[in-house]
């Protein structure tokens, strides 16, 4: 028999990015024995790559900023498809979470009078991103880790063991969540009882028995070839949730960041931070034209400059001028670049130019954008203080994710004791996320998830029990690729999946291509079920990928199905055959679930209605661009 190491915890947090670490801190502060599990090395989660900053309406750079303005911007950015309650909690609590980070030892860049400095970003009305140069994620992770170490030292002083209340399992992958085996499968909700996985280095298996699991596994970008995401973003948390009976919402909404590197080919997709535009960078096509002025949609007309002169004046006098169109939300800019290239006004490598060299002195560029300067010098031999960068869209962020209760981060569906925070959760960002809103999302909802998971454990009577047969089943699934002779090559399968998703479920979508994608995904599913990995269990990346593929497949199917179903264009979902937003579709969340045979089901679920005091933050002319006639009549009654 295969040895399985057993552990018992009150709360198991899967993921050691910003959301996971913040959740773990909160669970430990609530006195819970907490495990943190991470596929990569501790400190190497995706959050570390975040560059621009964390959005929080502290009002340091412009005293007019407050949570209501932030809420409004977030709803506009998400084209009103956001879960309003999440957007409200996020806008209200983000400043507190940022200040709290400084009590943990973070040090953000400062204004002249010593406050936390805030920078401009797309879609944010005022400068709002707390930052540390262009390495904000590094500071965030560093600080959260430092807080965890300090808690472990307190625990050591008290118990003689650093790990007594909070333990990190690095380079450990969870492959399955386990449910309460003592509860009958009568169709009612079932409690979480544990998580099963393996150490990546040794291939040894582990079982965590726990009544509460917080998913904080990040995104899904690795199903696309051109992506800013690192290797671990294979949608594991999304898939774990689905298989445990939870639901996913808004999976059709993927954010293609407008500016990824396009050259050289080996680095295609690597992110070029939006701070470049926030700090004055402009986009030009191969004719040298600053083309974004042509792409301001009606809904944003009032807030954006119409001439280059006005746009340029805005950087020094934002009170009396409107913002440059380079700072439109990401979906708008990505589509504009896509179109310029398609119409033959792109660079040879298939991008457009992003230029700061003519906009700022070299010292300022190096001071404000040190990582970008370094990145282009090292990877492309381009000096951004002298030459423009070449950029194009790259798959960056998934707005869709685990459907959660906004206040407690508890997963919806038929499972209890499961919580989700950070990029793996859905709803908060609607159809499109504003830059900087993820780092603040991680902190706000990471804390909430940790707090509510702990409260759930406190209120629980009998602890749920893992069934031996479920552990055996999880083990069998994990070992299957190694036991299969002559199975499909996992790397070939991943490339084939990336081709389907990139070519047929990419930035611009069409009915015929989506139908084709679904057909190909079905074929791939059969092949993935037959994936094989040569070699043994000791550090075997082919085996790891073989297991990840199962997750990528189901998540991709959700995305393709939802993309075919949603017959409108909104935020990160553009249908060439259904251009423009349809107010009827704004009332609909598409909810994915999995049935016993592993098939994906889609359901239309009405969006929760925004409370009167929140809807009153918008004026009628703006609402008319998003709402149905019936909703507007309701709004008028509210007003009267
Ligand atoms: P992550 O930080 O990705 O952490 C996921 C964790 O889950 C990792 O530890 C991983 O190892 C673990 N994991 C995954 N699957 C498993 C499994 N099966 N078993 C065990 N562990 C698992 N947002 C902003 O707001 N501002 C920015 O400036 C910004 N810049 C960005 C720059 C780049 C290059 C990128 C790619 C993203 C940027 N974002 C930014 C987005 C933001 O960084 C991410 O959305 C955010 O960091 C996600 O955090 P998370 O805690 O949800 O997940």
Observed structural traits:
640 residues; alpha/beta; five-stranded parallel beta sheet; 19 helices; 15% strand; globular; binds flavin-adenine dinucleotide
Give structural notes.
- By secondary structure, the chain is α/β, with parallel strands linked by helices.
- The protein contains 19 helices and 21 strands.
- The protein is globular, with a radius of gyration of 24 Å.
- The mean pLDDT is 95.
- The structure holds flavin-adenine dinucleotide (FAD).
- Flavin-adenine dinucleotide binds next to helix 1, helix 4, strand 8, helix 5 and helix 11.
Average pLDDT level: 95
Overall spatial form: globular
Number of strands: 21
**Percent of sequence in beta strands:** 15-25%
How much helix is in the residues? 25-40%
Short description:
One of its GO terms (molecular function) is steroid dehydrogenase activity, acting on the CH-CH group of donors. The chain has 640 residues and is an alpha/beta fold.
List the topology elements.
Elements: E1 4-8, E2 11-14, H1 18-29, E3 34-37, E4 54-55, H2 67-77, H3 84-103, E5 118-119, E6 129-130, H4 136-159, E7 166-169, E8 172-179, E9 190-199, E10 205-209, E11 212-215, H5 236-243, E12 248-249, E13 254-261, H6 275-278, E14 282-284, H7 308-314, H8 330-342, E15 352-355, H9 362-368, H10 370-380, E16 389-398, E17 401-402, E18 415-416, E19 418-420, H11 437-459, H12 468-483, H13 490-504, H14 511-528, H15 541-565, H16 583-586, E20 588-594, E21 600-606, H17 612-615, H18 620-623, H19 629-639
Parallel strand pairs: 1-10, 2-3, 2-11, 3-7, 9-18, 11-19
Antiparallel strand pairs: 4-6, 5-6, 8-9, 9-10, 12-17, 12-20, 13-16, 14-15, 15-16, 20-21
The protein binds flavin-adenine dinucleotide (FAD).
Flavin-adenine dinucleotide binds at residues 14-20, 37-40, 45-47, 49-54, 136-137, 173-174, 216-218, 228-229, 232, 236-237, 271, 397, 422-424, 435-439, 442.
């Amino acid at each position: 028999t295969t040895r399985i190491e057993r552990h018992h915890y009150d709360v198991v947090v899967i993921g050691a990015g910003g959301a996971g670490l913040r959740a773990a801190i909160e669970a430990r502060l609530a006195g819970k024995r907490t495990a943190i599990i991470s596929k990569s090395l501790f400190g190497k989660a995706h959050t570390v790559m975040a560059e621009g900053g964390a959005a929080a309406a502290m009002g340091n750079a412009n005293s007019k900023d407050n949570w209501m303005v932030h809420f409004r911007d977030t709803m506009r950015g998400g084209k009103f498809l956001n879960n309003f309650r999440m957007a409200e909690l996020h806008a209200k609590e983000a400043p507190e979470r940022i200040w709290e980070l400084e009590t943990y030892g973070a040090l953000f860049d400062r204004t002249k009078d010593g406050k936390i400095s805030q920078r401009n970003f797309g879609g944010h009305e005022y400068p709002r991103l707390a930052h540390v140069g262009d390495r904000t994620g590094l500071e965030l992770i560093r600080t959260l880790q430092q807080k965890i170490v300090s808690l472990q030292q307190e625990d050591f002083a008290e118990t003689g063991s650093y790990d007594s209340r909070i333990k990190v399992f690095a380079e450990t992958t969870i492959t399955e969540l386990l449910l309460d085996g003592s509860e009958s499968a009568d169709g009612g909700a079932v409690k979480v009882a544990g998580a099963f996985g393996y150490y990546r280095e040794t291939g040894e298996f582990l079982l965590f028995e726990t009544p509460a699991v917080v998913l904080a596994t990040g995104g899904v970008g690795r199903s696309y070839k051109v992506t800013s995401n690192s290797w671990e973003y294979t949608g594991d948390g999304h898939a774990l949730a689905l298989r445990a009976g939870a639901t996913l919402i808004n999976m059709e909404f993927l954010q293609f960041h407008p500016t990824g590197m396009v050259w050289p080919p080996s680095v295609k997709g690597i992110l070029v931070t939006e701070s470049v535009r926030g700090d004055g960078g402009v986009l030009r096509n191969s004719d040298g034209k600053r083309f974004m002025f042509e792409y301001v949609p009606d809904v944003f007309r009032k807030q954006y400059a119409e001439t280059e002169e006005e746009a340029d004046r805005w950087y020094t006098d934002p009170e009396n001028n409107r913002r440059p169109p380079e700072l439109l939300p990401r979906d708008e800019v990505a589509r504009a670049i896509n179109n310029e290239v398609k119409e033959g006004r792109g660079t040879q490598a298939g991008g457009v130019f992003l230029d700061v060299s003519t906009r700022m002195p070299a010292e300022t560029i190096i001071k404000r954008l040190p990582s970008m300067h370094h990145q282009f010098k090292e990877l492309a031999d381009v000096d951004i203080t002298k030459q423009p960068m070449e950029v194009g869209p790259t798959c960056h962020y998934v707005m869709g994710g685990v459907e959660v209760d906004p206040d407690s981060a508890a997963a919806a569906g038929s499972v209890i004791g499961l919580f989700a925070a950070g990029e793996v959760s859905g709803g908060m960002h609607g159809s499109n996320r504003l830059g900087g809103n993820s780092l603040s999302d991680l902190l706000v909802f990471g804390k909430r998830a940790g707090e509510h998971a702990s409260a759930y454990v406190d209120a629980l009577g009998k602890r749920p029990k893992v069934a031996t047969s479920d552990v055996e089943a999880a083990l069998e699934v994990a070992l299957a690729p190694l036991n299969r002779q002559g199975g499909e090559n996992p790397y070939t399968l991943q490339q084939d999946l990336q081709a389907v998703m990139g070519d047929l479920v990419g930035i611009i979508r069409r009915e015929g291509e989506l139908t084709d994608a679904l057909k190909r995904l079905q074929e791939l599913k059969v092949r993935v079920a037959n994936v094989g990995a040569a070699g043994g269990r000791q550090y075997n990346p082919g085996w790891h990928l073989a297991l990840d593929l199962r997750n990528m497949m189901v998540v991709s199917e959700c995305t393709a199905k939802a993309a075919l179903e949603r017959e409108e264009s909104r935020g990160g979902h553009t249908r060439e055959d259904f251009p423009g937003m349809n107010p009827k579709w704004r009332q609909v969340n598409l909810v994915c679930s999995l049935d016993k045979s592993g098939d994906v089901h889609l359901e239309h679920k009405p969006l929760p209605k925004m409370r009167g005091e929140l809807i009153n933050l918008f004026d009628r002319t703006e609402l008319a661009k998003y709402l149905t006639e019936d909703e507007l009549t309701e709004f008028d009654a509210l007003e009267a």
